[in-house]
Amino acid sequence: MKKGLLALCLVFILGLAAAGLLYRELRRPYRGYSGSLVIEIGPGTRTPEVAQSLVSRGVLAHRIPFLILHALDLLRHRSVKAGEYLFDRPLTPLEVYRKLVQGDVYLCTVVIPEGSDRFDIARILNQQLGLDPELFVRISEQPSPIRDLDPEAPTLEGYLFPDTYRFPRGASAATVALTMLARFRHVLSSRLPQDLQQSPARLHEAVTLASMVEKETADADERPLIAGVFARRLKARMPLQCDPTVVYAARLDHEPAGPITQSELALASPYNTYRKAGLPPGPICSPGESSIRAALDPAAGDALYFVSNNHGGHVFASTLAAHQRNVARYRRELAELRQTEAGPDPESSTRAAGQSGTARSMAEPAGKGTAERSPAESAAETPAKPAARQNPARRKGHQRGVRQKKRHQSHQNQE
After folding, report:
1. N or C: fewer beta carbons within 10 Å in the chain?
2. pLDDT (tens digit, 9 = 90+) per residue, 14-34?
3. How distant is the alpha carbon of residue 184 from its chain centre?
């Protein structure tokens, strides 16, 4: 009897000691690696394999505490979630286990600059999240998720709001697209005029015009002025001849490269505002809030033309004669700048049609390059930029980081 009691006491004491050791181990932070560490847990990975991986990578000192926590948690039907996990500080086994069970996965910060089109966005998502760019482009071609706001939307272009997002690697293309559309809806309902969402036609026109304004200038103060020029030309039934629309039309048709060509200017695309009167059928990029506001409230005035001033802004004119003088000055100053600064070869630079980090090259102003056009034929000209106008879903390598708007081109519009 006494021996049995003694044995029971011994077991109790050993149990308390083991519990104490386990408690201490569960609460002891550990870090067996330097810097930061990202560990990927694949779907269906067994818990013992996860524990062993955490030990081998230096996240855990021993795997037993982790496995005990898992065994105790089986009654709650909780398990480790698949995904990428960031470790950058000492953690206790309890903290590590909770992180994996709660699915506290590592989120990648993804910046979508204003002026990105859906092809640019697809490329950024491929670079940052490993997302299939062609799949994203195909999803963006389906306008149904936005048709309640804009029944005329030909695609999701223009409604994938440019902003900073956080997504887990491996996020689906559909999830990313819906998140960006939700951000647009939030901005529309909380920061833009309330009547806009009750007027589909007005919204469609505003976002389409805003996308052109976004591509034409990086200067927020100039956006209402650019919008004013477009609005007056629309009212006067003058062709818009917006170069960025030509580039967008070319991207839909083929893989453009280099200067805008005469054949691209002649493309029979509804987006080509050199050939088609009025606005294009839909937006050509994702405009920011500032450009949308400019499109809703264009600046008053009589200017019908604008041309780059070679310093990031534009010079405006109300008559063709004044515009031609501005174009001549632009070309003269551009030639002087090229003589005094080391820069790209004038023959290889191209007219830019995009901004916001779209490295569209633009060398010869509006219509010049492979096909000579008189400045009298257009409303604006633009400076040079390194070329990269291919469809990003098929083009590799185009860097587009935080908002780097093009040294702004101007485009030329016919009267």
Report:
1. N
2. 566 555 566 677 779 999 999
3. 13
Quote the CA–CA distance of 14 and 21 in Å, as a whole number. Answer: 10
Q: How far apart are CA 411 and CA 249, in angstroms?
A: 15
Report CA-CA distances (Å) from 101 to 75, 113, 169, 413: 14, 34, 18, 60
3-state secondary structure of 343: coil
Pick the CATH number of 24-105 from 3.30.1490, 3.30.70, 2.60.40, 2.30.30: 3.30.1490
In three-state secondary structure terms, 385 is strand
Mean pLDDT of 242-266: 88
Whether the pTM exceeds 0.85: the reply is: no
Integer CA distances (angstroms), 321 to 237, 244, 371, 375, 407, in order: 19, 24, 22, 10, 25
Return the DSSP state at 371.
Answer: S
- At 217, is the secondary structure helix, strand, or coil? coil
